[in-house]
Amino acid sequence: MSINKAIGVFDSGIGGLTVLKEIIKLSPHEDTIYLGDTARVPYGTKSAETVTRYSLEITDFLVTKGIKLLVVACNTASAVALPALREKHSLPIIGVIEPGARKAAATTQTKKVGVIGTEGTIKSGAYEKAIKALAPEIEVISKPCPLFVPLAEEGWTDNEVARAAASRYLEDMKGVDTLVLGCTHYPLLKGAIASVMGRNVRLIDSGEETALEVRRVLGKEGLLRGLSPTGKRTFYVTDNPERFVSVGLRFLGSVLGHAERVEIP
Ligand code: DGL
What we know:
There is one protein chain. Helix 3 (75-88) links the parallel strand 3 (67-72) and strand 4 (93-95). The chain has a six-stranded parallel beta sheet with strand order 4-3-1-2-9-10, sandwiched between helices. It has a four-stranded parallel beta sheet with strand order 6-5-7-8. Helix 1 (17-26) crosses helix 10 and helix 4 (97-107) crosses helix 10 (206-220). Helices cover 45% and strands 18% of the residues. The longest helix is centred in the N-terminal third of the chain and has 17 residues, at 48-64. The chain is globular. It contains eleven helices and ten strands. It has helices spanning 17-26, 48-64, 75-88, 97-107, 119-124, 126-134, 148-154, 160-169, 190-197, 206-220, 241-252; strands spanning 6-11, 32-36, 67-72, 93-95, 112-117, 139-144, 178-182, 202-205, 233-237, 260-261. The chain has two domains: 6-95 and 208-261, Rossmann fold (3-Layer(aba) Sandwich), CATH 3.40.50; 97-206, Rossmann fold (3-Layer(aba) Sandwich), CATH 3.40.50.1860. The chain is an alpha/beta fold. D-glutamic acid (DGL) binds at residues 11-13, 15, 41-44, 74-76, 118, 121, 149, 183-185. D-glutamic acid (DGL) is lined by residues 11-13, 15, 41-44, 74-76, 118, 121, 149, 183-185.
């Protein structure tokens, strides 16, 4: 495996750019190839079978582009598709659930952790299983918060609508001292979520933890690129590149430049 190959990253759409942002922050010298499946988004309301099929198709595509490691930046896809992806492909594959769960288990003092995500992620129980595998005594309270996704895309992240949605969704989270933001879009709503949860509750951003895991695995596999020039950024989408570039700006926190439309499969 060549260290000069790119890190492949995929998500159902633009949300995974919050994960890519963290990867670029920690590993700026790595080339990255991102695919947003904007023609088939959302994944959060689809069945595990469908999300797994889409994930396999996208991984096949990214592997043909020459990648040294794959990041499944979508929580829903990470929750259901990792075993199938790892069975088919031998390159290192990192999902967002394990790193977020590990951080939550290490952070909680009250042994009560909240997890929020899409319907698909919460229904899979993937975060709960991962947290309990590390510390069975931790109580996990899970809640789907589907409205947070369109709110983040609309840019309504810290207004009265976002705060009203957050206080309604999070009313069951009493007693948790750690809350996992188990969806790519939720880091944009950190302000509204924190204002409802209060300052004593630690918010875990799975994207940040995943970026740390990417560096750890690249180091372990001898695949870190080192001090080469700043990495090349490539973006593919399956529909509407213009919207991806304009809305994606807020998710990535910097200008995307250009996204190429491709057909998958
Ligand atoms: N990217 C998805 C996730 O993190 C959220 C958007 C969707 O439902 O596709 O679960």
